[in-house]
Amino acid sequence: xxxxxxxxxxxxxxxxxxxxxxxxxxxxxxxxxxxxxxxxxxxxxxxxxxxxxxxxxxxxxxxxxxxxxxxxxxxxxxxxxxxxxxxxxxxxxxxxxxxxxxxxxxxxxxxxxxxxxxxxxxxxxxxxxxxxxxxxxxxxxxxxxxxxxxxxxxxxxxxxxxxxxxxxxxxxxxxxxxxxxxxxxxxxxxxxxxxxxxxxxxxxxxxxxxxxxxxxxxxxxxxxxxxxxxxxxxxxxxxxxxxxxxxxxxxxxxxxxxxxxxxxxxxxxxxxxxxxxxxxxxxxxxxxxxxxxxxxxxxxxxxxxxxxxxxxxxxxxxxxxxxxxxxxxxxxxxxxxxxxxxxxxxxxxxxxxxxxxxxxxxxxxxxxxxxxxxxxxxxxxxxxxxxxxxxxxxxxxxxxxxxxxxxxxxxxxxxxxxxxxxxxxxxxxxxxxxxxxxxxxxxxxxxxxxxxxxxxxxxxxxxxxxxxxxxxxxxxxxxxxxxxxxxxxxxxxxxxxxxxxxxxxxxxxxxxxxxxxxxxxxxxxxxxxxxxxxxxxxxxxxxxxxxxxxxxxxxxxxxxxxxxxxxxxxxxxxxxxxxxxxxxxxxxxxxxxxxxxxxxxxxxxxxxxxxxxxxxxxxxxxxxxxxxxxxxxxxxxxxxxxxxxxxxxxxxxxxxxxxxxxxxxxxxxxxxxxxxxxxxxxxxxxxxxxxxxxxxxxxxxxxxxxxxxxxxxxxxxxxxxxxxxxxxxxxxxxxxxxx
Length: 739
Known about the structure:
Blueprint: H1 2-10, H2 14-29, H3 62-70, H4 73-90, H5 96-117, E1 129-133, E2 136-140, E3 150-153, E4 162-165, E5 172-174, E6 188-189, E7 195-198, E8 200-206, H6 212-217, H7 228-260, H8 280-288, H9 297-308, H10 313-329, E9 333-334, H11 341-346, E10 350-354, H12 355-361, H13 371-382, E11 386-390, H14 396-403, E12 408-411, H15 412-416, H16 421-427, E13 431-435, H17 439-451, E14 456-460, H18 466-471, E15 474-478, H19 484-489, E16 492-494, H20 500-541, H21 550-567, H22 590-618, H23 622-643, H24 660-684, H25 691-738
Helix pairs in contact: 3-5, 4-5, 5-10, 7-8, 7-9, 7-20, 9-20, 10-20, 10-21, 20-21, 20-22, 21-23, 21-24, 22-23, 22-25, 23-24, 23-25
């Protein structure tokens, strides 16, 4: 039966049988009965893979999410470090238990943040399909619907396949239909539509990829995967993880060579290096345990290098996306299934809008008063975004709007039938209206635009537009004017708003993406400095001035408070005057690398210098010196928040009054830092600072502002010099040609 059914469908003879013998003749050809349905004894002959899965996978359970959050080599190495610390602590090492429990606490925080930062898409509930088989009705899944099945239809049910309506005296109304009635005279039903009125029976003639919709979906070339931002973030995290793993190996290698192969170093600040070991076991023991039975600072440094690369980046970014979605969009649109769709909208260069979506977006202005629409279109043009209107009909009203843009008006058949592929690709960027187009024409349009390097958003709503919505980089639908399946297949769902609301969505995406860049520069400069300082000081002086407790404190407090402040930076007036981001443009630009490297090197250099000469210059104790270094590191992050506000401009204070959260973050970090130093002095005997030493820390932190300004000024001078030299060379070339 499988091969016979396929031949019937492929030969397109069902319409001919229908015309000659009616639905009963089609049922006989498919070996089924309109009253009783298929014979259940022969179902195994008909079964085939017929699933068209458009729904997202169900949300994983709590424990599955924990396992996924822990599926990280750095987390497992921290588990190992914590276990060893606790084991040795139980066996007599006085600080082993402390290090172990601190590390476990850090692991718990990291796992919780990873779980919170990863958005879990939800699966929209789908009703079971009711079929009649062997004279009895039963519920089956959509993948179990077979050719020849009889499906009772009533209000609220989805059409599970392509088929024929056959109930005499009855009729159906479908969602988003043109107002015509499905009855015995017009019996064709297509997969995905929803019944909004009436009742009757359906004979299934095609399932799965053999349906009209399924054949269209096979033309979709976009494969599901990660959006550009997660890919870029994964690259950054992978680099940091590799660095976090290589640094401990480097420290062990250098110290082991100094210990095993070198001569006795009586002046070494690392006591274990002052006497040459007897054998290799003695060398390893000295690297990990000192003469008092306590862990060496090497162990703390190794653990800190792993902790330093783990932060709350996904969590802070998720909070920023949610903040701007609620603030700018006022719950008029949402993207619960794919929150990162907002960011993709910020880099969209072309928006294709179907007539069914265009009319709801322009109800106040409907082909009467289109001033607001024209203003919105002009705003999108300024932002480098093109608008293409598509319609299944010939539209004089839309044509008038399209002609205002001096673009190309074309019919779908003409675009589809271009004999030369290059001719279609040449004209596709100039199209402003495609009329009389089929669902395949819409899909073809989106594919051609993407091949030309455009990032495309598709605004639709019908079930037959799902392939185009899937093919586009972002699919948008109007909730009140879209089919259930179209809503489920889209990234962004617009609940209310007019055409200008698309400008707001793009503005929201660009603002969020720009703020993510600011936050990443801030986070990376702190992370790199937090890796370099313990590494260099441990290799050079035998210990790190920043302890295993202090580094996580500085990391998490600065990351969350400072990161959240940067993620709430309001959009600038010139944000919508920039062109969309190119697909090849990296998340971390050259200017960002310039800034974060200079800031990280400054923090590292000042910390290493102070550890080397600070005690001598200021006449202070070792504990006070270490506290000054740690406090200066935290204050550097405070001023680094301000630096990160401007990635390219020298004036980092411009518009700072517009974001009160910057001031809140700075004040809260300072208050918490004062409290931390006081409590650490009382509980574990860390150094306490007087007002002069606090002033020194403040000057060190504020100097980061000057470092950032000098770096950008130097970069501008270099660029201007090369530009001037290039201009002079061009003039000399022109002069020589004239001669």
